[in-house]
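Field: sequence (string)
Field: structure_tokens (string)

Example rows 1 and 2, in order.
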Amino acid sequence: MGTRLTILIGAFALAYALLGYRFYDVQVSQGDFYGAQASTINIISGNLIPTRGSVYFTDKDGGQIPAALNKEHPVAYVVPNEITDPAGVADFLSKIVEDKDYDEILSIVSKEDDPYEPLIDRPTDEQASTIENSGFEGVYVGTGLDRFYPFGDKGSHLLGFASTNDSFWLGQYGVENYYNQLLGGVPGEAKGDRLKQPKHGQDLYLTIDANIQTQAENILENLILDYRGVGGTVIVAEPNTGKILAMASYPNFNPNSYSEFDIGTFLNPAVESVYEPGSIFKVVTMSSALDAGAVTPETTYYDSGELTLNGHTIRNWDLKSHGTVTMTNVIEKSLNTGAAFAESQLGHDNFYEYLQKFGFKDKTELDLPGEVTGSLLPLEQDVRDINFATASFGQGISVTPIRLITAISAIANGGELMRPYINSANRPQKVRRVISEKASDEIVEIMVSAVDKAFVARIEGYSVAGKTGTAQVPGVSGGKYTDEVINTYVGFAPAYDPKLIVLIRLDKPYGAPLAGLTVVPAFREMAEFVINYYNIPPDRIDIE
């Protein structure tokens, strides 16, 4: 009995010793190998990659329209440690895989203890079908994920693009970059046999209306085509809230095939380019002078057609003298000398302070990456009368399109500077008051009169306020102005209770036509579309 018990105890002891050794071998001696193998398997299966959130546009009824989403694509791969016939697999695959010969494939499929080797990132349907039906062990077709943009090049600067590797998504440009953490989530982690689940990304809902965005893109494309411009921008917004309804720029790109485009195309001109705005800036100057009480709409001055300051002569765009005119006439006739007069009555220091209040020294903080600020350097580093005079009508200083429409929105909405936004989860945010409601009412009345008399931007049944800008483009060195121009128009309607504001900019149209011939008709087309789309009721009875 004692001998048998001793043998039994010894047998159990030996078994436990062998089992303990096996545990040691797996967890300690070969722990790194098996841990790496488990991690690789989790990577292959996609367990560590968080699902990226989708991006949605909207419509007037609150519908959610996908603008960026994930789309599966086939991936051909091998698991070498499952392959029992390396030579047969290599011979089979060498006839399918175009960029690898027999010897290279044989080397891949013959690797010991290798759980994964990619073969074809996006096999054709024929390639995938042939591999799936091969009958070879260790040869598979799985799935990977692409980012897909249903609108193609529409809204490309807004959206940007995103790509993924084995563990994370990377958003580039646009909201894909700005909201990358929200959309992309947090990758999981695999340490040996321990798996930390990924935190999946959240969906993003934009204020961009898909129908308004498409119309803006079409209008801009036609404008570029008709006038052979080199670039342009259209922004549609709500002046009372700062909500952006559309933002289109040219040249654009297709985020589904972003590698085919020059990197410079990815920059968003609406927030990442500056330019001299020209005469549109006169309403900023005039509203500031009205707010300060330096002038009234009825204040007069004598326009001789030119003004000489510091040895430089300013002339009106039409090269004419208009005699005694009011401040209302200055905007109606877009007189350079009149803007300079209003600035001189306001005073240089006060003028500069108003430009700061309007935000021309700051970013708008729109939720898009890469925003830059314009420049007021001539008013800071070369304090001469001529520089303040030219700045009064938008030459010598620079702005971004998003800052310009935000500033004019403050004129439109009663004097409040609003922060623009495109994430619908945000709420309207007042930055500060820049002019009084009284000054706002006065400049709006003047702008409506200018539209009515120029006629081109008028919309039957609606009061429309707006201003053109035809700005000369400075030379490359920043010196003498060229013969090229940038045309801009900003207008809003209904003028006394604005529901929309539109900025249209056209860069270097062929032959340097005036803005009234290019961007003003485009504004009217865009504004009429939004008015009809939202069924905005008319606010006036037109009398011819």
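Row 2 begins here:
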Amino acid sequence: MSETPLVLRVAVPSPLHTLFDYLPAPDTDPGTYRPGVRLRVPFGRGRRVGVLVARVEGAQVDPSRLRAVEAVLDDAPLLDEPLLELGRWAAAYYLAPPGEVLAQLLPPSLRDGAAQSGRDRAFYRLSDEGRGVAGVPGARALRQQAVWQVLARADAALSQDQLLTRLEGFDAPALRNALRALMARGWVSRCEAPVSGVSGVKDVGGGYATGPELNPAQSEAVEALVSARGGYAPFLLEGVTGSGKTEVYLRAIAGTLGAGRQALVLVPEIALTPQLVARFEARFGARVVLLHSGMADGARLESWRRAREGRASVVIGTRSAVFAPLAAPGLIVVDEEHDPSYKQQEGFRYHARDVAIWRARQLGIPVVLGSATPSLETLRRVGQGSYRRLALPRRATGASLPRIEVLDIRRRPMKGGLSDVLVESARAHLLAGGQVLFFLNRRGYAPALLCHACGWAASCTACDAHMTVHRALRRLRCHHCGAERPLPARCPACGGELMHAGEGTEQIEDALRGLFPEFTIERIDRDTTRRRGALEERLESVRSGRAHILVGTQMLAKGHDFPDMSLVGVIDADQGLFSSDFRASERLAQLLVQVAGRAGRGARPGEVLIQTHCPEHPLLHTLVTQGYDAFARQLLTERERAGLPPYGALALLRAEAKDGALAEALLNEAAHAAAAAPGVSVLGPVPAPMARRAGRERRQLLLQAAERAPLRQALRHALAVIEASPDARRVRWSVDVDPVEMF
């Protein structure tokens, strides 16, 4: 009688919602196959790198049909059992392919099969002689000078990967050459990793800077967070803009580090991470690491390793960092928890805030959700008693909140989107020595180009969208698919005169240069900050006072502190008032409150002027006159009556194809299957709000239920039908559980 074979269940990156069975490689020790190791396996006609999830005795099919593993890539599991459990939960909750989910838990180089310990682990620091010099002389030693400056500012030795994250315009060979030259001068020495493990981390009283004195509300919040250490406890830290939420995070993290544990801090955007990292490094030194998708692969891998091995005490990152390995987890912080950037919109569509909450419960540690404008989901859980609310009702500096006024711009003369009232108010603030921020969440010069004679409009040939005018580049660009073409001088249809419709940040900047030629202007949007380091340069120009006027998009709405900013002008508040997306008004309110919070944070009183054609809109009126809390309560009442989140559960099935009929047919099959689940409303399929994008026709199917269990049952029925359909291979389709974008 033959022995029962050992079968390996492997998560292979693929769009299929299943694990794949393999046999061990011939003549290998079964003990090397431990859950969490990477395996190179044959897959289809090629090979892929997967993660071993489980070992089972016996196969569900004839073992002769199973293929053998080609290689075991790790001596020990890269993913420990808590991370594997997190991956299994996320795959089940978001109905995502397990191979794609577990791949998300690894840095890109490890997903591709690279050795996880093959990088140079040496660290570098200035020698005593190097600290005694004023700098590196010679015009031809600029790279050496840059490396010397970074090491001079560091309070601990740095690896090559850490140096690369701090140096502008360096690649690995250039860094090695500079280090070699500095070591030849005797100014830099090489050493081993400075610390191994998390024990012995200094607390605030043992060497860290203590920061500013806390006010009573901050002290109460810190005490609550520190006392919760050692068990799962979810908190909402709700504080007005400028109330000192970051200082509360720092104090709570100091206590966590003092207990020999690690902290994970999530921020919504990469633009916020350099400032936050600088503040955390000033408090905690070199044991802070950055982890996000914009990093070079080597630097990202090194940060991942340091977190996993406990050599990093604080991990700061964007949404993907929620899966960072932690040797001794002690606290999770989600800053700006309301921000939609925490939801992944492609591939594995997880929400980092919700994953962080589940992970904190799994690990038995506190989690802090911070915001001046909490999401309705979080506010409902506070109302249910599931989360504890910690309030910071006043600004930490003692400054008053800005005065907010709505400007009715109907029938008013406008220049470049600016009303005369806003212009004159800006002039008064500038002449008084203040700075002014003009906020418009549209980049480019104008969102549309029209012919005054025949009505022709510059449209994208691949999307149902107008192309945006970028006048400085003399280009038309589609902000949805990236297509672009030259800016025409005359109408291509009739030769008539072309006119711009609407305003973007580029046009606002042009108008302001004409109105305020004596003042320096900085524009901050995705177009002006593409170059590495450009954002930090422009922000520093504002903080230092060299720039007097700032024009920008939502990149400026949160996390920035400009002490001399006394006026914020919101150019257009109407975009979110009449959207087809039920979340649009919530997002508009959050954005307005956040950008308004940039005003009056220092000694100068703050003022906010909001331009609108709809001053009588009830939601806008409630927000301005009664504040965000009253606004949120009003929205929660509306959502409850409509059965919308957070009082109901949603899932969105999307499909797109060159032939829209194929996408619609596939979703029709899914709709019939989902309708068999009781208690679920099946809406659609219908064309997406943008029915054609990047040359593909888009359809969507919305599933709505009062409870999550029937919704999950409906989704399982629908997915089974889709995966069995022969049309599924000709259609791009996805499932989005708890969607935050209906687009």
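free_text_note (row 2): Residues 40 and 49 are 5 Å apart (CA to CA).
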